[in-house]
Design goal:
Blueprint (H helix, E strand, L loop, with lengths): L1 E3 L15 E8 L3 E7 L4 E7 L3 E7 L4 H16 L5 H14 L1
Antiparallel strand pairs: 1-2, 2-3, 3-4, 4-5
């Protein structure tokens, strides 16, 4: 289940890309998606705890669909036991996709 990260307390604060956090959610204590509104773009930072961190840049019209798609991929990945090879493959595929 996706929930607001830190009970929503990060919304309006400055994120890792030096933009204002406008969306920040966590999945079952396993992953986090943070969206920042920066000066010229939106930054979406995805962290799968213990496996990867990846940041994607896009415009304001694109980020909602990207987040929706990322959530589906993360739910599928985090919903199963993965071998090291499967983790590496998922991360590589995620980087290429996003």
């Amino acid at each position: 289940m996706w929930i607001d990260y830190d009970e929503g307390k990060t919304i309006g604060t400055v994120g890792s890309e030096n933009g204002e956090i406008v969306y920040d959610i966590e999945y079952n204590g396993s992953a986090r998606i943070t969206v920042e509104c920066c000066e010229r773009y939106y930054g979406i930072t995805v962290g799968i705890y213990g496996s990867m961190v990846h940041t994607v840049f896009c415009n304001g019209d694109e980020y909602p669909q990207k987040v929706t798609d990322m959530k589906k991929d993360i739910e599928c990945f985090c919903g199963r036991d993965n071998t090291l090879a499967e983790i590496n493959k998922f991360c590589g595929d995620f980087y290429k996709k996003y």
